[in-house]
Design goal:
- With 190 residues, the chain is mainly β.
- It has one domain: Sandwich (Jelly Rolls).
- It contains one helix and eight strands.
- Strands 1, 2, 3, 4, 5, 6, 7 and 8 form an eight-stranded antiparallel β-sheet that branches.
- The N and C termini lie far apart (78 Å).
Length: 190
């Protein structure tokens, strides 16, 4: 064999061995990654528990902390106290509202409000249909409670789909902030 042929065979052999040593796989790698999106729930009478995906409010205390979107997702404020990880209104002596949107409309049975500072000044809970119609499922008077607290509002299963919740808080008797960390909506798909 000629020296050039031996060099060529040696080079190919080195490349093949290096490729095998690096653990290449025959499994194709996708060109783009797809975000990990949970599958939509199947239609059943099983309870669907979901955290708010969107939020707006009558006012917000901060620019990055204490804003309405802090009330989306699962609770993440670990203890009672004034914490920028929860929503707070811009003033302490006002009546305010927090509106939350959910990914999957359900026939609702319960709303759980996670309050991490000065509960319970919730005076109303309204459910929002996908068409924008609202239905009041709770009214009450401000009543101080231990902190942190979960305010659970249970009611018979709605005959209409619910895609949002409006929570009204009355801080006029408190003259201090009430802060909401998360709001869970429970219901069924049929």
């Amino acid at each position: 064999m000629k020296p050039n042929t031996i060099r060529l065979i040696s080079a190919v052999l080195v490349l093949v061995l290096a490729s095998l040593a690096c653990g290449t796989s025959s499994t194709p790698v996708p060109a783009t990654s797809v975000p990990n999106v949970p599958p939509a729930p199947t239609v059943s009478n099983e309870a669907v528990n979901q955290w708010a995906a969107t939020a707006t409010a009558s006012s917000e205390f901060g620019v990055s902390g204490w804003i309405a979107t802090q009330a989306t997702g699962a609770p993440d404020v670990p203890e009672c106290g004034d914490n920028a990880g929860a929503w707070a209104a811009s003033s302490t002596d006002t009546v305010e509202w927090l509106q939350l949107g959910y990914t999957t409309p359900v026939y609702a049975t319960e709303v759980v409000i996670y309050i991490t500072y000065n509960p319970d000044y919730v005076t109303a809970v309204e459910l929002i249909e996908p068409n924008g119609s609202t239905h009041t499922v709770y009214t009450g008077h401000p009543t101080p409670m231990d902190c942190p607290d979960k305010v659970t509002v249970s009611f018979p299963k709605t005959t209409y789909l619910v895609s949002g919740v409006i929570i009204t808080i009355d801080q006029t008797t408190l003259n201090d902030w009430s802060e909401i960390d998360a709001v869970q909506l429970t219901g069924t798909l049929r």
